[in-house]
Amino acid sequence: MHDDHEEYLTTILELFRNEPRGMSISDISREIGLNRNSVSKYVNMLTIAGKVEMKAVGPAKVYFLSERVPISAMIEFSSDAIVLLDDQLRIVNANDQYLSLTEAAKQDILGEKIQGSTLPILSTDLFLSSIPKFREREQRIPDYIQTIGGEERSFTIKILPAAFEGGNAGYAVIIEETTERRAAEETIRSALSEKEALLSELHLRIKNNLQLIASLINLQMMESSDDHVNAALRETQNRIISLSIVHEHLYARSMIAEVDIGEYLTLLISELGRSFELPAGAITLSVMDEGIHLSTDRAIALGLITNELITIGIGSEGRPEIRIAISRSGDEHILSILAGAGHHKPEGLSINIVRRLVKRELQGEFEIIPDGWEVRFP
């Protein structure tokens, strides 16, 4: 069977020698009476071996004899360890990188069958079970770990069906060492994990400090009997709470730089309802698009904007019914808050805060609409 393979490879090479203008897969298939899929695999083997190269002529692919250096000579120019095996899995060549890796002498391993040998990598069950059947596509073994010389090392291995000088079939084994890269990646992962832990602790401490300030303001409100003073203190307290919730959310979700806006606004609305002692359902939130995330800075700005507008709406006469919706339209985010008569209050500090936050932090637009407000930002 292997003789048939080598005969086909030799025959195809001879066709190329006799037709310097090149041949397509269909041309070769007709000449030797073999189906196109089989011809394509043989030609691919010759291409990998450097014996044949392809050129596009219009929509067609035409193959020619290659003028490149043969694979047996080319392996010495590679920085990877390379071993060439024949179809019986005997070593026919190995470059200096492989010899250095295994501390083997070339004369000792040439002609050796890898099955039953003690050669690193090549003799392992994982490698032997990964060798592709004849004419199959290349096989790849990523993150291959083996102890060599008492040291654990990692490799990425490619096993490519190939054809060598004279049309002999076999395999090219390319062994790329990834030990240093894996160590660098692990160092980066470890450093990132440490920074995430530190940042998470920072969010926790900021949240606790902000909640402490909010509690102190609450004590001050309990000491005051002036309704106007208490109203101003409550507004300040709610602004602090909106900041605190962002850091609580980031800490709870182990997130570094992004806030899930749906979850954040839900927490914020719950806290504001508790602060203003509102009945259930007084404030509702509709998240029209799942997975809306903003950076920490933009989320804080959006939270403060929402807090200010809810505060205005709650300040209106009668039972407050505030409807909040957050959605996304293309690259634009839209926050709408409907609060009935509340939005007709004269512009004061809260509206000025909103306008500045929308412009400076969100680079967006703020608009007063019937029964409420709308914020659009990228």
TrEMBL record:
Organism annotation: Methanocalculus chunghsingensis
EC top class named in words: transferase
SUPFAM superfamilies found in the cross-reference section: PYP-like sensor domain (PAS domain), Winged helix' DNA-binding domain
Domain PAS fold-4 residues, every copy: 78-183
EC id: 2.7.13.3
UniProt keyword annotation of Hydrolase present: no
CDD domains: HTH_ARSR
Domain of life: Archaea
Lineage: Archaea, Methanobacteriati, Methanobacteriota, Stenosarchaea group, Methanomicrobia
Domain Signal transduction histidine kinase subgroup 2 dimerisation and phosphoacceptor: 201-275
Catalytic reaction equation(s): ATP + protein L-histidine = ADP + protein N-phospho-L-histidine
Every HTH iclR-type domain range: 11-50
GO biological process: regulation of DNA-templated transcription
InterPro entries (alphabetical): ArsR-like_HTH (IPR011991), PAS-like_dom_sf (IPR035965), PAS_4 (IPR013656), Sig_transdc_His_kin_sub2_dim/P (IPR011495), Tscrpt_reg_IclR_N (IPR005471), WH-like_DNA-bd_sf (IPR036388), WH_DNA-bd_sf (IPR036390)
Keyword vocabulary terms for this entry: ATP-binding, Kinase, Nucleotide-binding, Phosphoprotein, Transferase
Protein name stated in the entry: histidine kinase
The keyword Flavoprotein belongs to this UniProt entry's keyword annotation: no
GO MF term set: ATP binding; DNA binding; protein histidine kinase activity
